[in-house]
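Structure (tokenized):
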């Protein structure tokens, strides 16, 4: 793979752990609403999160607000103020959680940075993402960093155009088929899927039958790139 390729990386659950933190907080949320069926709590929370995406965007703050709204709705307004305070404190703990890189990430990104142009393309809350990127220790390895509100074909087109990247010379690496694979293939790029062990229900889509590569861990990425 020659150096005039650009490699894009997703952040959450591709470079560092993220969804597992949400999962632990959601388990605590179910416990707070212990008198209500856990499956119903999950269903209502997902429904409200999706409804709120256009207002709050992706990230911890929107998640916490959606949990509070869900708690109010499923208890018909009877949720205790102390439980709401507990959810707020849980959100603060999530925001302060240490950034834990996935296995093989530090070595792989550092190695590729010497011969390829690297771009970090991640979605979510600007303040939270900037903080995680800074604490990850990876920021200086990327030529460009893009924090976006959504990862759809139009967003990728704008990012590629802004940095003068030809789609046919762009490879995206990420854990989400919905956000990192399908839209990149649509704009003419190539993609590598690195699944994470937990996927938010909103991100669940069927993967394409062909046109992309799948690896089990970041340590396999350099081998894939060498074949392109």
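Design, position by position:
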């Amino acid at each position: 793979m020659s150096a005039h390729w650009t490699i894009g990386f997703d952040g959450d659950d591709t470079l560092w752990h993220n969804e597992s933190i949400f999962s632990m907080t959601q388990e605590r949320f179910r416990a707070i609403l212990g008198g209500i069926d856990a499956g119903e709590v999950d269903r209502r929370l997902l429904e409200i999160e999706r409804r709120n995406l256009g207002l709050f965007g992706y990230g911890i703050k929107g998640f916490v607000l959606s949990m509070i709204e869900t708690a109010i709705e499923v208890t018909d307004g009877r949720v205790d103020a102390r439980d709401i305070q507990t959810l707020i404190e849980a959100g603060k703990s999530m925001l302060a959680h240490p950034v834990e890189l996935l296995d093989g990430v530090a070595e792989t990104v550092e190695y590729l940075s010497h011969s390829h142009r690297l771009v970090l393309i991640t979605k979510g809350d600007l303040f939270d993402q900037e903080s995680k990127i800074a604490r990850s220790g990876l920021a200086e390895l990327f030529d460009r960093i893009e924090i976006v509100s959504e990862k759809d074909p139009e967003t990728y087109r704008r990012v590629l155009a802004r940095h003068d990247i030809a789609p046919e010379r762009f490879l995206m690496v990420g854990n989400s088929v919905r956000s990192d694979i399908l839209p990149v293939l649509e704009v003419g790029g190539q993609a590598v899927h690195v699944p994470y062990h937990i996927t938010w229900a909103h991100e669940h889509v069927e993967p394409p039958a062909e046109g992309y590569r799948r690896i089990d861990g970041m340590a396999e990425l350099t081998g894939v790139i060498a074949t392109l």
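Reviewer-requested clarification: Residues 17 and 100 are 6 Å apart (CA to CA). The mean pLDDT is 94.
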